[in-house]
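Q: Protein A?
A:
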Amino acid sequence: DGVVGGEDEGFDPMGFSYAFDIRWLREAELKHGRVCMLATVGWISTDLGMRVSDGSAFQVSTIDAHLSMVKFGSMPQMLVWLGLAELFGFMAMIRMYQGKTDRAPGDFGLRALYPKDEAGQYQMQLKELRNGRLAMLAYGGIVTAAVLTGKPWPFFAVGESRATTAGDRSTFCGGLQKAQVRSSAVAAQAMERSASMPFLPKPEGLKGLVGEEVGFDPLAFAETFDARWLREAELKHGRVCM
């Protein structure tokens, strides 16, 4: 009670608010949501070709950007400035916990475009909370799709695909160990649309399996893993669930 969204949604299935200070939980949720909203916009922008500089260090894919910045020497400076911001945020939280201020979790005093009335302020806070939650899910999905497909956003086979290997995306989270070279012939075949999901290319990895005509493989697992192993697992889980 008393937390934005709490009285309307009441979503706390694990009971975290009983074990931890709800102010700390909301502070963390807002911080992660804001970071993911910025990260989602940033990832899509760089995938669409936007760069802050023409330098060679910036002419890399979004997946390889972190490693490139480490080699370029940008990360220590980012660590210092972000650490300073975290320090001020931590001091504000401590004063809030001690009751020295009436600060709400996540409030850093930024009032640009902020409504004047209480009802408008509540709605603005609720929108930020919900959009932040959506952005956390969206960013996780974007990173996963980027690593698995090796393609830029929106990760569909639109136009001629460049030949890639699993090593190209191995710098992020270990990547994949099995090299897969996609030739121009495969790229051309990928333009054939899936029957079940017409906005996606027809998955070639399902060829020869029952149900291949449906073409349902939205995350392209069959291109990454052996389709026979996937079908074995699918049938086993289906039989157990039946």
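Q: Protein B?
A:
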Amino acid sequence: HYYITNNLSKMLSSHLKRLAKLTVTQAARCLHTTGVVQSGAGPHNALLSHLEEDENKADMAWEFTEENKDRCTGIIAQYPDGHQQAAAIPLLDLAQRQHGGWLPLAAMNHVAAVLDMAPMRIYEVATFYTMFNRNPVGKYHVQICTTTPCMLRDSDMVVRACKENLGIGMGETTADKLFTVCEVECLGACVNAPMMQVNDAYYEDLSEEDVHEILDGLREGRTPKPGSRIDRFASEPINGLTSLTSPPTGPGFGMREDL
């Protein structure tokens, strides 16, 4: 035991000495520096401490609309007595939709009050899940997946096209508050890569022309048809079906005649 402990101590000491020699620049390279973290106004991943701003004051009046109060009642009723706190995520989502796509601190506090929870428990949920934006976003929140499958299908092209069309960088919002664009991790549409999400809509199998057409359409007030841009159904093979190509057999297929 002494031999193992002594060797571990020497290894740790050696490692700490190497770290101490790193320059600030070298150390910074170890940090995650994608657009998600540097998102500024758009993404969820802002400072974890609250900063008072005119549009996000802790004592700002905020409550659900009458229509959304009825929705809250319906959502909470889906959970057994004593487990209403399980409605935290759907109520935060409802609050975010009511507030234009992002969650001010006052909205989080109101959800905590509705569910009789400590506000900190709500903050923990809102800061953990990337679906919640804690800074204002544009009317159209454009999220570009750049994880491995999309990267292999040229998600960099989607990023370039968005930057070119909108005139902003990752994590930024256009001056007219119409678009916010950011880079995100896997959105679960790997088979239809490359893709991007605009609010609740998925746009898949994108070409550069598709990206410009979608953004131009949204800017002009139209709603481009979501889904695959090459008209394949769901995630079927890009070259057509390779199985289930004939009608299914009827009852009794393959059974012995005497049964």
